[in-house]
Amino acid sequence: MKKNKDVIIETAIFMCGMLSIIFVISIFIFLFKEAISFFWDYNFIKFLIGKNWYPNSNKPLFGILPTIIGSFLVTFGACVVAVPIAVMSALYISEIAPKGVRNILKSLVELMAAIPSVVIGFIGIRTVVPFVKFFFNIPTGLTAFTGSIMLACMIMPTIITISEDAIHSVPWEYKEGAFALGATKWQTVRRIVLKEARPGIIAAVMLGIGRLVGETMAVMMITGNSANIPDSIFDPVRTMTATIASEMGEVVRDSAHYKALFAIGLVLFVITFIVNFIADLFLRKK
Amino acid sequence: MVDKIKVKNLSCYYNKKCVLESLDINIEQNKILSIMGPANSGKTTFLRTLNRMNDFNVNYLRKGEVYLDGYSIFCMNMENLRKRVGMLFAMPIPLPMSIYENIIYAPKCLNIILSKSEQNIIVEQALRDASLWDEVKDRLNSSAMKISGGQQQRLCIARILAVNPEIILFDEPCSGLDPISTAKVEESMIELKRKYTIVLVTNNVKQASRVSDKTAFFLMGKLVEINKTDELFVSPKKKQTEDYITGRFG
Hints:
heterodimer; A: 286 residues; mainly alpha; MetI-like fold; two-stranded antiparallel sheet; 11 helices; 2 strands; 1% strand; globular; B: 250 residues; alpha/beta; Rossmann fold; 10 strands; 27% strand
């Protein structure tokens, strides 16, 4: 009898495990099906490097290069802002902060991760957008730069939490060994702790990037939503995700435009898949 | 004989519980002092006080003084003290890098700027002094995590030697090693006392009698007896010492 129960439970767990694989594969198939029919009508290369996104003109053009650049700019900017701050706060939390401060900080950071991205967008519109407009004296505060700053706030908790775990899991014995040789705290942190925790930190950054690429709401609200190739980081941009989100509601079903949006989705899926895959490689290396 | 370290009335507490009580010990230069005693007798606490590794523990409290060459160690810069007083732990813990880097790590940290050839000399000398050179000279760049436990422990010794300390503290260095590796570590200890002063904490009575010049016996946080090793093992003055070395308890 006991054996039967075992079999049932094992099967149930197996099914649950399989489900997640099935989900991923079916999402991919679904995206691929819609996207591929688009590429029958429209050249793939033209789609990727086309400079113009005019889905509604008489002779529609579906070039997603501006949105790819937009996504890239915002992501890159957010990384530049977030990574140093996040890694240093992770170091502070796990190596320097006294116990009480550490516990408060950790829960605050985790709380920060729970802020919905729409709310981040709100805060951005009310604070950072006017500030950027005024401070850099530009016609609009809705720029890639603004988006980068707000997204940096959004991914910081992810990076902090995961890097903190990585830093925390460096064995105390390594540090003790270094201290016993007369190394100072900073020398130990730099040469032992950071070195040991590096795979984990890189994985944290990659996961953060994965989240950035897929982020929609906040960027749609604060990056200006103009599908032109920006001259600098202080120009409005539109990301791939924002394109899909803002146009999906009005598009005619099964039109070329509709399928083009799915094709963007496929590109996004591939990008985040690669990023997560790299993160996984680093995590496994540890 | 010159006394390298003088300990005056040292008491140590964890969470206000006394683990080491008014201890007075002099440690002679270029000798091996071994400290034996059962678990919980304060041996390791004493050792970790000598290079202030206990300062990381917030529950730790200390009274009394320790003098190194006549200067109080508690007034010294902590990093400088640890450079002069190296410590070897019970478990061999190579740093996660190559054998070569393990040894050159500390000199580099201490900002002694070295040319590559000087580095090579330091590494070779340290490994030779720790009697490890012949075993690893062909694979200095392979990971230190891959060599055997006994080799790792000697690598840790070499790592300490590279900083050129005056005193080396051994905290049960052979507790995780097999007899042959133990013999090798002991061999290098005896070699090392020509240049360094050594304090060895050990659970192993035989080891104390084999390698040390002087032996101290700790029990329940108190120093029961300290004497020349030959005398202590032949004619212990205290009953407790005799019971311990003859294996009646502990």
